[in-house]
Design goal:
Heat Shock Protein 90; 612 residues; Ribosomal Protein S5, domain 2; eight-stranded mixed sheet; 3 domains; alpha+beta; Ribosomal Protein S8, Chain: A, domain 1
């Protein structure tokens, strides 16, 4: 029988590795940025086009590479970061696997320009599908410029699995921010389709946070600092009043490397115990410095998961550090025990003379002295006959009054339309726990979820607006300026046309701000910033979890964000309008995700509950 095991060609092996390392354009951005940092650059720029599918370019002023190093950098497992297996457990660099450039070159058209300091000319390499097409000397600046064009051009299945441009841009910005946040000593800039997204100058960690997320973050941050033999923690957490309904800006960095850890996230969340409700999440930016030999970062292809030697101790230290910081800045609640008044001793002021307690005694007090007790007054009985002088007259007036009232009541009862009364009773609506609307039916009763009902109504409205390309906008008397994170601002730019169709009238101001001049008519009484942030969060969540078309996703997201929420008290008129509009929908009984908007129960079900 012939041998069946064979070595894979390098091109195939590189594509397999690329499937692990380069999952989307953001993955390539992360690898190139980390290589630039390892090269010692203090200025790094990122340029993308078409969400990274057409172009990803990273330029740095680092040490650069020689001609030989430039050629070897595209080989698998070629790296300058480690030399021995033991080095894996004492890492102080990022790109130590040596698969990034090989993987990228296997699935894209790659161009590398690099020059070391002291060399007059540099090296230019062009690699397509792991094959070197050109290698020549060139004139270029000190450092490295790496360009990726036509990502996944030879892996169409992988390209088809990419999300829409707004979502892929959002992932790229997320990766860029994770790298830029922790390296505040480096100048970073980013451009998307010719527009500047971020321009970050060197500064402190706090300045870098404010530079990325906006000036308003400066007042939201509580500094955290803790130094132990095991770990050194520094960073910031947001004040409780700025917590969000979604997991927003939550960053852990270990030895200047971004990581994800649900376990450590729980430590921070636990430190906010009794300060936040269960559906609120704090923002935090925490840098952990720990002995590299105490951690293993080689357990995940993207290196975003780390194994700690003593994870429970790290958890306790983080929780204590955050809790102490909140308490130090008078944010954490303090215990307030009720005390007896006798223990409320005032503090003595400095140089104030001590006053001895005094006892006041009444010298004239005689415990054996008897006091005269006043005797109760006797009721007066004279002239009692006068009470009954007008008895017969008063009694006659009362009887006549009662007869008149009884006659009026009979007339009202006789004039009542019984059919109309029954119909009004059936239409009467009752709000239960400010969440459900109850109405009577002939065979039982109907329960309407007010939030879901409004979501269904708005969803069909927005779908219609997007299909017709025209929505109803209500101009604001006072335009409102809303600032977003860079990722959300870019997402709004990508969705500008559709957002306008929904009824928003906005103008961009600055890098990440928008002036809202008009909103959909149903949003005039709502918090515009919260609605728009909710819209974007829901859109991103739907894009990552559900494969929806853009219009459907936008309609669902907008409806979810703008709908009245559970807990809102409605008037009888509002309840009637809501129920009428719900049953005027094409599909009133469920949301687009299949969840019910109404539930009906009949009298037989109730009779069974009461054993009738």
């Amino acid at each position: 029988m012939a041998d069946i095991i064979q070595l894979l060609p390098d091109a195939v092996a590189n594509q397999i590795a690329a499937g692990e390392v380069i999952q989307r354009p953001a993955s390539a951005v992360k690898e190139l940025l980390e290589n630039a940092i390892d090269a010692g650059a203090d200025t790094i720029s990122l340029v993308i086009k078409d969400a990274g599918k057409t172009l990803i370019q990273v330029n740095d002023n680092g040490s650069g590479m020689s001609e030989t190093d430039a050629r070897l950098s595209f080989e698998r497992h070629a790296t300058s970061k480690i030399k021995h297996a033991a080095d894996l457990f004492n890492l102080n660099t990022k790109g130590f696997r040596g698969e990034a450039l090989a993987s990228i070159a296997a699935i894209a058209h790659a161009e590398l320009k690099t020059r070391k300091e002291g060399n007059e000319l540099g090296t230019r390499l062009i690699v397509e599908g792991s094959e070197v097409k050109e290698q020549e000397v060139c004139s270029t600046s000190i450092g490295t410029s790496f360009s990726i064009k036509n990502l996944f051009y030879n892996v169409p299945a992988r390209r088809n699995f990419l999300k829409s441009n707004p979502v892929e841009v959002k992932h790229i910005i997320d990766e860029f921010q994770r790298v830029a946040l922790v390296h505040a000593d480096i100048n970073f800039s980013m451009h998307n389709n010719g527009n500047e997204v971020l321009n970050l100058k060197k500064g402190s960690f706090r300045q870098r946070i404010v530079g990325i997320f906006g000036d308003k973050y400066n007042q939201k941050l509580v500094p955290i600092a803790e130094e132990t033999d095991l770990v050194v923690i520094e960073g910031f957490a947001s004040k409780p009043e700025f917590a969000k309904k979604t997991r927003g800006e939550q960053y852990f960095f270990v030895n200047d490397r971004f990581i994800k850890s649900n376990y450590l996230n729980h430590a921070v969340q636990n430190a906010f115990d009794q300060l936040l409700s269960k559906d609120q999440f704090p923002s935090y930016f925490l840098k952990l410095s720990i002995d590299p030999t105490k951690i293993d970062i080689n357990i995940h292809p993207t290196k975003t998961e780390i194994k700690f030697e003593d994870e429970r101790a790290i958890y306790a230290i983080i929780r204590t550090a955050v809790k102490q910081a909140l308490g130090k800045f008078n944010i954490a609640p303090t215990l307030d025990f009720e005390q007896e008044n006798s223990f409320n001793v005032p503090l003595k002021r400095e140089n104030e003379p001590v006053k001895a307690p005094t006892i006041k005694v009444n010298p004239n007090y005689n415990p054996f002295e008897t006091k005269t007790v006043a005797s109760p007054k006797k009721p007066r009985t004279e002239n009692w006959e006068s009470l009954y002088n007008s008895f017969e007259k008063d009694t006659k007036d009362i009887v006549e009054h009662l007869e008149v009232e009884e006659h009026k009541e009979e007339q009202q009862v006789i004039a009542t339309n019984w059919d109309d009364t029954e119909e009004e009773e059936q239409k009467a609506l009752l709000q239960l726990h400010n969440k459900y609307i109850l109405t009577q039916l002939k065979s039982g009763f109907l329960i309407v979820d007010q939030q879901r009902a409004h979501e269904r109504i708005l969803f069909e409205q927005y779908i219609s607006h997007l299909a017709l390309g025209k929505g109803v906008s209500q101009q604001l008397l006072f335009p409102e300026t809303v600032d977003f994170t860079p990722a959300d601002a870019e997402l709004l730019n990508e969705l500008a046309k559709e957002i306008e169709t929904l009824g928003f009238n906005m103008d961009k101001v600055g890098r990440n701000g928008f002036i809202v001049n008009g909103v959909p008519a149903e949003l005039t009484d709502q918090n515009i910033k919260k609605v728009m942030e909710g819209l974007l969060e829901q859109f991103k969540m739907n894009e990552s979890e559900l494969k929806l078309k853009k219009h459907e996703n936008l309609a669902i997201s907008m409806a979810r964000s703008a709908a009245i929420k559970s807990g809102k008290k409605l008037s009888a008129e509002e309840m009637n309008k809501l129920v009428d509009e719900l049953f005027a929908c094409e599909m009133p009984y469920t949301l687009p995700n299949g969840k019910p908007t109404i539930v009906s129960l009949n009298v037989d079900d109730l009779n069974q509950q009461f054993d009738y």
